[in-house]
Design goal:
Helix content is 66%, strand content 10%. The chain is α+β, with helices and mostly antiparallel strands.
Length: 259
């Protein structure tokens, strides 16, 4: 295993670790966005709240989530460490700047630190509240024949249940009642605060700048670049990861603020 240790401790090996964790986090952004788009459904939060239950109970998803938490922490602190190593190796800056490189490539550590702060705030607002907070429960009644939500009932404060999702069926009425924690309500309350919405939107702008360089750089570091495919990788990095995904995430808090 000495060859692996030497490789990962080398300059290129350290960058490879950043690239792997970075690209893994990029793939997570797609999955997370698809789930968050459930917030736009006009069903009182039924789709989003049941999706949240699935994401926190499915064994495979739960296993991957631990890899995700590790990747976030590792990518953030490893990036700061690499930046420290670079500055230590060259404590005095160049006398004359040649202005090479984009704004994003020159400030990846700063942009990454801001994103890490955003993630901490985001987890505190939603992940922590869902797991250990005092979210209220809500019951949705669904017409089995049509799939239409016919009633939404907020349960009294202090109500609790042993399972994350409790389903009961009324065969005579042809309905199903589903009781879950109301994380959708938490989103409504959180994004009713203009300052928090502004923070989220600016954080997504920072994420876009971080990804416009990081996505393409990750492929290059792993040697997955080729003159024929580089333009495609660049377009995906810019238009999908640096523009479309951050924009879609930014629209969510703005939507709730306006709503």
């Amino acid at each position: 295993m000495s060859w692996l240790t030497k490789t990962l401790s080398s300059s290129i090996g350290k960058k490879v670790l950043m690239a792997i964790t970075g690209l893994f986090l990029c793939s997570f952004l797609i999955i997370h966005l698809v789930g968050n788009l459930q917030l736009f459904k006009d069903d009182g939060g039924y789709a989003f709240n049941t999706y949240t239950v699935f994401m926190t109970t499915n064994p495979l998803i739960k296993t991957v989530s631990y890899v995700l938490y590790f990747s976030i922490l590792f990518h953030a602190f490893w990036g700061i460490y690499l930046e420290y190593q670079n500055k230590k190796a060259r404590p005095v800056g160049y006398a004359v700047s040649n202005n090479q490189g984009s704004f994003a490539s020159k400030n990846m550590a700063i942009l990454g630190t801001i994103i890490f702060v955003y993630i901490a705030v985001h987890l505190s607002d939603f992940w922590y509240e869902y797991k250990w907070g005092h979210l209220p429960y809500v019951t949705y009644t669904e017409e089995l024949a049509t799939g239409e939500i016919t009633s939404i009932e907020s349960l009294p404060e202090g109500y609790t249940q042993e399972v994350k999702m409790l389903e009961t069926f009324d065969e005579a009425a042809g309905t199903k009642s589903t009781t879950v924690k109301d994380l959708y309500l938490e989103a409504e309350l959180a994004f009713s605060k203009p300052l928090l919405v502004i923070f989220y939107v600016l954080s997504m702008l920072v994420l876009g700048f971080h990804l416009v360089h990081g996505f393409q750089s990750g492929f290059q570091t792993l040697g997955l670049n080729h003159p024929k495919y580089n333009p495609v990788i660049k377009k995906i990095g810019v238009w999908i990861f640096a523009i479309l995904i951050p924009f879609a995430f930014a629209v969510i808090p703005v939507y709730f603020l306006i709503k």
